[in-house]
Design brief:
Strand content: 15-25%
Helix content: 25-40%
Number of strands: 17
Mean pLDDT: 96
CATH topology of the largest domain: Alkaline Phosphatase, subunit A
Low-confidence stretches: none
Radius of gyration: 21 Å
Shape: globular
CATH superfamily of the largest domain: Alkaline Phosphatase, subunit A
Order of helices and strands: EHHEEHHEHEEEEEHEHHEHEEHHEEEEHH
Largest sheet: 8 strands, mixed
Length: 460
């Protein structure tokens, strides 16, 4: 009997879709991701569904691990109820050892249900990459230890508690989590297949990294994106959210170049650590029997449309990298299928021949991987109670409702992939057709049962 393939899931934080060196960005160096690309299938149109929180990564990660749709999560994914089967929980039930290291943003109990082993677990959203408050793995799953940090010791004595029992001072988060993964691979003695979840904090800010990586990107060589703006054309209520305060208004081109250089440097650094994990798998002689999955939890603006963060529904913020590579995955394939990140869970089930739980709502991508079949004709996105969007074929409609603000944007992505020219006024017939699809989705889904959905549609 052939051994079940191992699964290594590499999840990055704030990495947008166009950051793969060999495929869609010659300005960035990602040699190890490039190798995985050549041995796998990449989903060019992978997206998140949006978010019901300014911390977009929290619902995004909850959707990944449950396969649940955005408006069926409990809250914004702070906790995951027992009736929502978790990815690691299912694999554990079917004979996999499950190992989790890095960022976990969805509650202690859901981590404990998911993993039989782990190390250096960060329970939170973001922190100093060089001094991450982490917790050792607890077999009982209680994680009672706390540490304290004065967040702004120059101006305040206010402290914050973290679920943590130690800190590796001066060890970057990307190295810390990759080292934990490599140690697990080195020490593993059982013959059971394993599911390894390596959840990076990079390239999320604060964007710091070993200097050698920053030296690879000269600010003067960085190109300003064509959809750069000093400020967003209108205020939709996120102007002062934390991500948007990382650069002053108006955004100056030289400042944006600096942000992009640091962003690229962080991605190249984490790419280096991915290479270390791949080498550790090869040393075990397991490379050919391992499925590698790489995904980002959401994108990021960094000056595009006058924005800095991911609290919007433009392509730069909803589109993410998604790659399946390795064991029996078609090599060098680029899929155009419209997919969400909650499709990863059922896809893993099909790849390792495990029944998909009834609670999972995503769609398996197996047909797209092996037969080029498209998964969806339309994509629907939501951000809190403020924005809704729908994409059908080459057109994308974005509707804003914030207090008295009512703004409509329409983009032809085939001719205008950077969403520069709003053609809503010139193509009212297309706006009306897409708006009808938007309303239909809002009516058919359960979003009107949520606070965010009720507020948006009340103002529509």
């Amino acid at each position: 009997m052939t051994k079940q393939p191992n699964i290594i899931f590499l999840l990055t934080d704030d990495q947008r879709f166009n950051t793969i060196g060999c495929f869609n960005n010659k300005a960035i160096q990602t040699p190890n991701i490039d190798k995985l690309m050549k041995n796998g299938t990449y989903f060019e149109n992978a997206c998140i569904q949006g978010g019901t929180s300014g911390a977009v990564c929290m619902p995004s990660r909850a959707m990944i691990h449950t396969g649940i749709n955005l408006f069926h999560l409990q809250g914004s994914g702070e906790e995951i109820p027992s009736e929502h089967t978790l990815m690691g929980e299912l694999l554990l039930k079917h004979g996999y050892e499950t190992f989790g290291t890095g960022k976990w943003h969805n509650g202690i109990s859901s981590y404990a249900r998911s993993f039989s082993n782990g190390d250096n677990i960060f329970f939170g959203g973001m922190d100093d990459h060089w001094n991450v408050p982490v917790h050792t793995f607890d077999k009982v799953g209680e994680y009672n230890s706390k540490s304290f940090k004065t967040l702004d010791y120059l101006h305040s004595n206010n402290k914050r508690a973290f679920i943590s029992d130690h800190t590796h001072t001066s060890v970057h988060s990307s190295d810390l989590f990759a080292n934990s993964a490599c140690e697990y691979l080195k020490d593993k003695t059982s013959k059971n297949p394993y599911f390894m979840y390596v959840s990076y904090m990079a390239p999320h800010d604060p964007r710091t990294m070993p200097q050698i990586y920053l030296d690879m990107y000269k600010i003067d060589n960085i190109e300003i994106p064509p959809n750069y703006l000093p400020e967003h054309p209108f205020n939709f209520g996120q102007r002062n959210i934390r991500d948007e305060t990382l650069e002053k208004y108006p955004r100056e081109k030289q400042a944006i170049k600096k942000h992009i250089a640091e962003y690229y440097a962080m991605i190249t650094h984490l790419d280096d650590t991915i290479g270390q994990i791949v080498e550790a798998v090869k040393k075990r002689g397991e490379y050919d029997n391992t499925i590698f999955i790489l995904a980002g939890d959401n994108g990021l603006a960094l000056g595009q449309h006058g924005l800095m963060g991911k609290q919007n529904l433009y392509e730069h913020s909803v589109r993410v990298p998604l790659l399946f590579s390795g064991n029996n995955i078609p090599k060098g394939k680029i899929s155009q299928a419209n997919v969400y990140l909650n499709d990863i869970f059922p896809t893993i089930c099909d790849l390792v021949d495990i029944p998909i739980p009834a609670s999972v709502e995503g769609k398996s991508l197996n047909d797209a991987i092996y037969h080029d079949d498209f998964v969806r004709e339309t994509m629907y996105y939501a951000y809190k109670h403020i924005i809704r969007s729908i994409k059908a074929k080459n057109f994308k409609l974005i509707e804003y409702r914030y207090n008295k603000l009512k703004e409509t944007q329409l983009y032809n992505l085939e001719d205008d992939s950077m969403e520069i020219k709003n053609i809503a006024k010139e193509y009212q017939e297309i706006v009306n057709k897409l708006r009808k699809k938007l309303i239909d989705y809002g009516n058919k889904s359960d979003e009107k049962k949520t606070i965010h959905g009720q507020e948006f549609w009340k103002n529509f």
